[in-house]
Structure prediction request, 241 residues.
Amino acid sequence: MKKNIKIIKSDDFKYPLKTEGTKSKISIPSLTTFGFEYNNSIKSILKNKKSYYQDNKEKNLNWWDTCIRKNFIKLKSAYVHTLKNHNQYLIKNGAEPSKDRYIYRLQFDIYAETVYNVLISSKNIAFQILNIYYNLNIEENKVSAKSIKKKMTDSFIEERLVSLEEHIKSTYKIRNSFTHKFPENQKAYRADYSKKGNLEKQSTIIRNEFKPQEIMLNIDESIRFFAIFINDLKMNMKLSS
Prediction:
């Protein structure tokens, strides 16, 4: 019996059209950096009479801000590709299995995973900025929501951290499945073996995957709430400065 084999070439993969990219950029919430400027050490210390500690603090805030700026660029780019392939996959979803449909789903999975990884990375960078700005002095590799809440004296920031962690629980679950577990975006028909005494049992784990619509909805909600979180932090920093 001859198998129905489709050969996929590099030419079959297409970038979003300009109109599609524009629509996607409109859909994504506005993500802007904290705006920490670079300061020249000589000017900062000698002219402005700032301490070495303050100069070092401002420089590190600027560098972390640069990191999150680059992440936001990656996030926006990945989001445009994710949304484009999501929409094209839905258009083809009612049709017979085809090469185009497979490509759109494959690219959606790739870019969706990128969005999750960059989003969590951006969240971690924001935590580093909180650590430095509020002089918490937590070791860089130990900065987390838990360690920040333990040392934070600003109740508003504590509340925002609790709210963020609550709202992105499902984001963590999906992202961690991509990284550490069986992916949530794939069906599972895995074999399961157990033994109790002399009794052995083998069965099949059946689990349906998250549909692209569900993942896209989670991405939209996660980015929207993260953007609110960042804006709340910036507003609070302005009030406390």
Remarks:
- The CA atoms of residues 32 and 191 lie 46 Å apart.
- The two ends are 74 Å apart (CA to CA).
- The longest strand covers residues 188-196.
